[in-house]
């Protein structure tokens, strides 16, 4: 079963007036993983689709949705998949990919049938991002062995973390989609600090591996007009191009960042130092 919803884009002058309820309605994606369902959110931020897939006994097929007005979901789109659960299987037009936890798969435009299923005695959780595409590139699995791994941050600033670049242009040819996974080391809580914005692309954050009973305070908004949302395990945030996207957890956690927009330049960002935030 495929379920879907729609989110409009917001002007920063409007967003700064949102109360807690409204800001959560506009930017927070709460229930991505429901058994035997594919749950999708179509966003007007660079038309990124964010979703979660939790297969049961039978494979789940990625079906088109009315917003796409296409026969197949990937007729004019590309797709990134990261497994955040136990071992799972993704079949793309008969080609089978096994994904362990924290492994990724890029699926190019034009694929007709995409099936998600569990490996034996496992419960996979597939987190997906999809962006419009103009050219077909080959499907490719990305594991830890061929990811670009970078150590960032310091213990003294509580942001020591491991950045895993997965679906990026140094590894995979894509039209505009980029995805990666960052792991906060034990005792560290801050992600993406110092904060930044990048006006030529939007971003989606997905928080996972957060211990039960813990939370992450996700900070967003313009650097001079910040807001926050408290986020739970397996929830995602839509981050507009004008917004910072930093977080601090009550324990360590992992998160997946996905981007779409005008360029594939990972370093194209405007840094804001911590003492400049308001």
UniProtKB/TrEMBL annotation:
InterPro entries: KduI, KduI/IolB_isomerase, KduI_N, RmlC-like_jellyroll, RmlC_Cupin_sf. Zn(2+) binds at residues 196, 198, 203, 245. HAMAP family: KduI (MF_00687). It catalyses: 5-dehydro-4-deoxy-D-glucuronate = 3-deoxy-D-glycero-2,5-hexodiulosonate. Keywords: Isomerase, Metal-binding, Zinc. Belongs to the KduI family. It comes from Cloacibacterium rupense. The keyword Disulfide bond does not apply. Catalyzes the isomerization of 5-dehydro-4-deoxy-D-glucuronate to 3-deoxy-D-glycero-2,5-hexodiulosonate. Pfam families: KduI (PF04962). It is an enzyme of class 5 (isomerase). NCBIfam families: PRK00924.1 (NF002091). Pathway: Glycan metabolism; pectin degradation; 2-dehydro-3-deoxy-D-gluconate from pectin: step 4/5. Its EC number is 5.3.1.17. Its cofactor is Zn(2+). This is 4-deoxy-L-threo-5-hexosulose-uronate ketol-isomerase. Binds 1 zinc ion per subunit.
């Amino acid at each position: 079963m495929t379920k879907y919803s729609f989110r409009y884009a917001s002007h920063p002058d409007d967003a700064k007036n949102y109360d807690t309820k409204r800001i959560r309605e506009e930017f927070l994606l709460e229930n991505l993983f429901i058994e035997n369902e594919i749950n999708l959110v179509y966003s007007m931020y660079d038309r990124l689709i964010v979703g979660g897939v939790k297969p049961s006994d039978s494979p789940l097929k990625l079906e088109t949705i009315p917003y796409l007005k296409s026969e197949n979901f990937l007729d004019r789109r590309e797709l990134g998949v990261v497994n955040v659960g136990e071992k799972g299987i993704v079949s793309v037009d008969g080609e089978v990919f096994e994904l362990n936890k924290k492994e990724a798969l890029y699926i190019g435009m034009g694929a007709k049938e995409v099936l998600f299923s569990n490996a034996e005695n496992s419960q996979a959780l597939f987190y997906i991002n999809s962006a419009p595409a103009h050219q077909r590139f080959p499907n490719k699995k990305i594991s830890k062995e061929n990811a670009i791994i970078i150590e960032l941050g310091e213990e003294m600033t509580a942001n020591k973390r491991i950045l895993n670049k997965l679906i990026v242009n140094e590894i995979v040819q894509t039209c505009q989609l980029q995805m990666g996974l960052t792991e906060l080391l034990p005792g560290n809580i801050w992600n993406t600090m110092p904060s930044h914005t990048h006006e030529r692309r939007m971003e989606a954050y997905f928080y996972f591996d957060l211990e039960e009973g813990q939370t992450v305070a996700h900070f967003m908004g313009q650097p001079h007009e910040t807001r926050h949302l408290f986020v739970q395990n397996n929830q995602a945030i839509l981050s507009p191009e004008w917004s910072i996207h930093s977080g601090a957890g009550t324990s360590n956690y992992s998160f997946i960042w996905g981007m779409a927009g005008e360029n594939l330049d990972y370093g194209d960002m405007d840094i804001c130092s911590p003492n400049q935030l308001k």
